[in-house]
Amino acid sequence: MGDESKRRARRRPDGRAVAAGNSREPADNRPGHMGADPMEPRSATAAARPSGGIDGRAEAIRQRPRRRLTWPLRGLLAASLAVPALLLALAAWQNFRLVEGEAEKRVTIEAGELDEHDLGAFKIYPMVLNWIDERIRGEDWDQVERDPDVHHLLANLETLPQINTIWVVDAAGHIRSGGRLYPALADASMAQDDAFAAQRQSGAGVFVGHQHVDPLTHDPVFDVSRRVTSADGSFAGVIILSASPRYFHNFYARISDEKEFAACLLRLDGSVLAGFPDNGAPRAFDPKSAFMRAIASAPDGSPFRVASVRDGIERVYALHRLAGFPVAVVFGVPARDVLPAWRANLVNYLLFAVPASLALFGMTWLATRQIRRERIASWRWQTTARRLRREFNRRAQTEAELRQAQKIEALGQLTGGVAHDFNNLLAVLQGCLEMLSGRQSDDRLQMRVDLAQETVARGIRLVRQLLAFARHQPVEVASLDLNAQLRDMTELLARTVGRGTVVETDLAADLWRIDADPTRVELVVINLAVNARDAMPDGGTLRIRTANQTLPAKAAGDGARVREYVELEISDTGTGMPADVAARAFEPFFTTKKPDKGTGLGLSMVDEFARQSGGSATIRSELGCGTTVTLRLRRGRSPAAVAPAQSPSAASEV
Predict the structure, then answer these.
(1) 20 in helix, strand or coil?
(2) Residue 312 lies in a domain
(3) Regarding beta strands 327-334 and 262-267, do their DSSP bridges make them parallel or antiparallel, or are they unpaired?
(4) For the stretch 196-233, what's the b/e string if a residue is b when 16 or more beta carbons lie within 10 angstroms of its beta carbon?
(5) Is residue 616 situated within a structural domain?
(6) In this predicted model, what pLDDT tens digit does every residue of 485-538 receive, in sequence order?
(7) Nearest-CA neighbor of 512 among 639, 632, 636, 643?
(8) Which of 509, 503, 650, 649 is nearest to 570 (CA)?
């Protein structure tokens, strides 16, 4: 039969092969057939193959590498310059931070040395005040004023470099003794001095006053005072030690080799006690100034930046508060002194980075040219390989379609002949049984006649399936509302699946109409429902869903960009099928049921119906998870454009 079919094969003018044994038109030209969608795996048509070559060539042309540099290669070249520049900038920034950190470290060290020196000097002041207080304790003011030993003690203490003068003042503010005056002047008074006023009002302990000019010695000083109390604890007078700012100034001048550095000893309220340099330095800083705000917020020993009030130069300062005293020492160097060292390091970086960057750019340029050549060569090789692969696939597909067409044609001829003869036999039996039905007096005989009639009816249904498979059954195409058809079948489906199975429907609103044979639609749904029932022996759920579906038509020969389908999905919760069985489910005469339970034509008829309706059928199944069969049927044309049709060979089968 195979040799005879090959000899009788003929070709159409467009070059497509058609099995010679099939005297009918190809499937895409038969009445009622909407044409197969090339995107479906089971419905690829030969008409899409010529456009595949054109699309392949167009795709190859689009994928051809351009002669000029692509954007990734341009980005690579740009990166070969940008990355070194970025690394250089990062290194320069890191070096700047390092140089700046070293400057802050130096400032912190210098401020620590000032703190150590000044704290040592300030610790002497309370000791001196305590010695004097112990010496004059128990003496009245007249004795103190005439005592030469007290005068000599004060004179000896004034020889210390950090001390300018020492005064012993009574409760009225009169000077009773001093290292430079003996006897003391009767009209000399320090009642207006802030060191005296602070001790008289509240007893401030060791009090540090503002810098001022001593009215007796005419030297700049700042006072450190201690209260003198009587035996009953009342205020009796004040011991005032006038410290020498020059002592601190001279030490500050020798502390550092930095240019334009600044050092300052000040009270925490902003009053300056000593400093270097002292030309143009304010006597006190405004508490709201940036300098004082920075001091108030800076932790002890931490550096900060602020512009100087004296000369406007921005400096890096470090602050140390003297422990036990309301005084702080500040040291700062100009921030601009950091730049020369950083510039020198930057020049060294550039001497290395610029040649290295240019060399990297040149190597990257050569590499991109080589990559471009390799891409062009690879594209040429891949294009040739794709052409060979497409030709091989085209040839294999053509041969497979030819073999399948011959197989289906042979099966169709065999099945059609058998079904035709068997249908004639069933017609005779049905006529005889109709004559016997209702004429039996014995109920048992009548039951047997009814049973025989049911058996004949089942045989007639089987013949219809065989004729549908053989494409000999008349096809009556009509514009069909699938939702309405399914609603009408609700009672029939319920009886088919039995009481143990629940039928659920999910019908889409505004569902498109289809062009199909209503009888065959009903037969397809019944077949799938029976299969679902057999897969659920203990009952379960049968779900029927409809939906509109729009899919792209990649290789459509009619120029359409999309195809519109009506999707019918029937699923169950049964035992499911393994992958190898699901792959063969649509093959004719393939069944896993017992010999008396199935013929293997149900799903093949479903698949053939989907093809004739311009769509496809797919199956998804997993053991223990049920089975889902999805039919995609081409959206119907207007009802006026659809006319009932009949297969060309149907007349010979009637």
Answers:
(1) coil
(2) no
(3) antiparallel
(4) bbbbbeeebebbbbbbeebeeeeebbbbbbbbbeeeee
(5) yes
(6) 899 888 888 888 888 889 999 999 999 999 888 878 888 888 888 888 888 888
(7) 636
(8) 503
β-pair type (220-229, 235-243): antiparallel
Residue 95 CB: number of other CB atoms within 10 A? Answer: 17
**Two tokens, residue 440:** 């039996």
Q: Got the DSSP string for 44-77? A: --GGGHHHHHHHHHHHHHHHSPPSSPPHHHHHHH
Give this prediction's pTM: 0.45
How far lies 459's CA from each of 424, 429, 456, 606, in Å?
Answer: 11, 11, 5, 19
Pairwise CA distance, residues 243 & 164, whole Å: 5
- Listed in sequence order, the residues at least 6 apart from 158 whose beta carbon sits closer than 8 Å to its beta carbon are 164, 165, 166, 179, 180
Residue 244 inside a domain? The answer is no
Hey, which of 43-57, 341-355, 581-595 has the most confident mean pLDDT? 341-355
- Alpha carbons 379 and 384: distance in angstroms, whole number: 9
> What is the DSSP secondary-structure string of 300-358?
TT-EEEEE-TTT--EEEEEEEEPTTSSEEEEEEEEGGGHHHHHHHHHHHHHHHHHHHHH
Number of Cβ within a 10 Å radius of residue 56 = 15
Counting beta carbons within 10 angstroms of the beta carbon of residue 375, is it exposed (0 to 12), middle (13 to 18) or buried (19 or more)? middle
Contact 270, 286 (CB under 8 A): yes
> Per this entry, what is the length of the chain?
654
Domains held by the chain: number: 2
Residues forming beta bridges with residue 502, ordered by sequence position: 541
Percentage above 90 pLDDT, the chain: 15
Is residue 289 in a domain? no
Band the pLDDT of 181: cuts 50, 70, 90.
confident
Q: Side chain identity at 499, as an amino acid letter?
A: R
Tell me the C-alpha distance between 239 and 237, whole Å. Answer: 7
Pairing assessment for the beta strands 501-506 and 540-552 based on DSSP bridges: parallel
Output the pLDDT for position 631.
92
- The residue segments making up the domain with residue 593 are 474-653
Which residue bears the tokens 């005469």?
A: 589
d(CA 331, CA 115): 10
List CB contacts of 461: < 8 A, sequence separation 6 or more: none
Pick left, alpha or beta for residue 32 (phi over 0 → left; psi -120 to 50 → alpha; otherwise beta): left
Left if phi > 0, otherwise alpha if psi is -120 to 50, otherwise beta: which for 280? left
Which has the closest alpha carbon to 135: 179, 171, 181, 173? 179
C-alpha to C-alpha distance for 43 and 60, rounded to whole angstroms: 26
pLDDT tens digits along 316-362? 899 899 998 999 999 998 888 878 888 888 888 888 888 888 888 88
Report the CATH number at residue 622.
3.30.565.10
